[in-house]
Design a protein that fits this description.
α2 (12-48) crosses α4. By secondary structure, this protein is of the alpha+beta class. The protein has helices spanning 2-5, 12-48, 53-57, 60-73; strands at 84-88, 93-106, 109-120.
Length: 133
């Protein structure tokens, strides 16, 4: 019965520390998750482009127009998502959307996230993963 008297639970400092750690992780989640969700929309836009030979037939401006329409419909606001580079060879077309997002976390601490998305017309099933990986 003596041991029950010493088991009182967390102290107020323990609760404060627990709440601060949980609050920090919630703050990180609320700040960072929207950027990852926006990148998922960009990947969906690349997957929605005509794949295979049909992508080879589109001009660069038509590809950019289709991506911009998808961005407008799905409210993609990142300026980096407009960073579309198209490379053409005789056998394939590569559409790259590489950008970085800088999110202010606390006071003067920023988190930089780098997103690399690539659509290869010769490998449409491997969409959104760059060749170098």
């Amino acid at each position: 019965m003596n041991s029950l008297r010493y088991q009182a639970g967390l102290s107020s400092i323990g609760w404060l520390l627990t709440i601060m750690v949980a609050g920090f992780f919630l703050l990180c989640a609320f700040k960072l998750i929207p950027s990852y969700a926006e990148d998922r929309y960009i990947q969906s836009a690349l997957k929605a482009l005509p794949q295979g030979g049909a992508l080879m037939e589109l001009s660069n401006s038509e590809i950019k127009k289709k991506l911009d329409k998808f961005y407008m419909i799905n409210n993609v606001r990142s300026e980096g998502a407009r960073n579309i580079k198209i490379e053409r060879t005789s056998k394939k077309t590569l559409v790259n959307v590489n950008y970085e997002v800088r999110v202010p976390l606390i006071y003067n601490i920023d988190v930089v996230m780098i997103f690399k998305n690539q659509l290869d017309s010769s490998r449409p099933d491997a969409c959104c993963k760059p060749e170098s990986e």
